[in-house]
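pinning this so it doesn't scroll away 📌
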Amino acid sequence: MKYRLLALDMDGTVLNSQKKISPQTVAAIKKLSESGVYVVTSTGRGRAEVNDYPDVINLMNCGILNSGGLLFDFVRDEPIAIHGVDEKIILKLIDFGLEERAMIHLLGIRHSIAREEDIQNMAAFDMAVYHDMFNRICERCADPKEYVLEHPGEVIKVNLYHRDKISRDKNFERIKPLNLSISFAESNNLEMSPANITKASGLIELCDFLKIDLAETVAIGDADNDKEILQTAGLSVAMGNASDEIKKLADFVTLDNDHDGVAAAIEKFFKE
């Protein structure tokens, strides 16, 4: 099979454990992109978060962002498709977050929104590794409910970062009846998107837009929010640092993210 599209997760996949991208991985992506293969990111991050990595994003054609809620054309710098969360549901999610003293993170089309006090206290939510990025790129909002009401239709995804697993699990049970797509990408977080919106739905929608058959795609990931896309792509690759569950459902397991697993997979499956 000659594959025409590679969908790459960011955290735990393209990014190493230090949230950096190695020169070897950048070089492999660059070479593949220049060969005519569509290289896209499939990530829970929004447009603001991926902007932090211009060296690799500038090599990509499109992005499946916000866990499938936003398809973005990086070349034209404009959305291809937007799937927002209903405002009434967002307000409920915010209430649940406030009751559990969670960090509330809203992802829009181009913006990432959070409260200042949460950004400066990210270690309490087991998110210290992201503090520098959030501190630089987040738009501050003292009242997330007010932001939602003032920006109707603009919130695509809601993240709730909890202080512990007990708190997270309590909110998970409260959120389940709301008919949302829910994933666990970090230790104590919940990521909420509209029902049936996942990285997999984003891949299907993007392939339709680009006129590419799903059988001609490869997806690489490592976490819970990669399950569906790995089960949907023509070929699925799990990172060496992925959980056993993710490795079992993948067609192939590559090296881990600290040893250029993405570059190794590109070399194996995209030989000229």
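📌 and the second one:
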Amino acid sequence: MIQLVSKIEEANAITHAGSFHADDIFTTIFLSKMQDIYLYRANEITGKYPDKIIFDIGYGEFDHHGNNARIRENGIKYSSFGLLFEKYGKKYLKQLNVEEIDSCYEIFLKEFIMQIDAIDNGVFPSNPKDYKITTLSGIIELFNKTWKEEEDSFLNGLFVGELIYNRIEKRIIDKFEAKNKVEEAISKCEGPILILDTYLPFMDFLLSSKQEQAKNILFAIFPSNRGGYNIRAIEKSIHSHEKRREFPKEWGGKSKDELVELTGISSIHFCHINLFLCACETLEDAKAIAQLAIK
């Protein structure tokens, strides 16, 4: 539960007033997962409040605006969200009954926490085009008041932020629970084609697997949520979208009839123009498509 309070004495958490950002919104939500939060939004901190969590203001343990602000080894400076998750994140994951807490914690950092930290500290995605890319932080900041409005929508920011937070958490926890299944499938794989009985978020786990066989896998086959099977080209590394092996260039973007004529495989019906994904109706045809691409 999150409740805004009008008196600092009623609060057990304090953050800054005025324009809000993704770090103070998500920090508030994160804290509320562990206890009820009575939040006071202050313009400045003038006293000492050892019984309250103070974040993103006051130059204390959970503020990142002072000269003692901390920076990760990868160069990303902590925001209040990163600082609080560092202190309480593993305790929180234990509360969620997560297995392999350290590994799951690292996924949270990579897929959620560090992007908020980076953007809040001025690291923005490169965008050389003549249009704007909206980040997760940008979505939260939509609820700050415009120059024509009297008040911001902090509560609406919290509402939308909690929907996003809960969904990200669900996807990360579910993804992490797929790790052992992916490792088991890799251990059974005897060639360059990985077969999955159901769709799993496999790519990151395959690329980080310590199994020797994982290095030789070129394609993964799995049931498509549209029916039939997908054949997915494997990337060279977690940090690259370059593929170990692509589908032939002449397949890219072709119609079903053209693909059948090019491949001789009757149920193929799609090849992405960027040559990383094909789709067909049967498992046997999926294997044949992957073998053709390998040859």
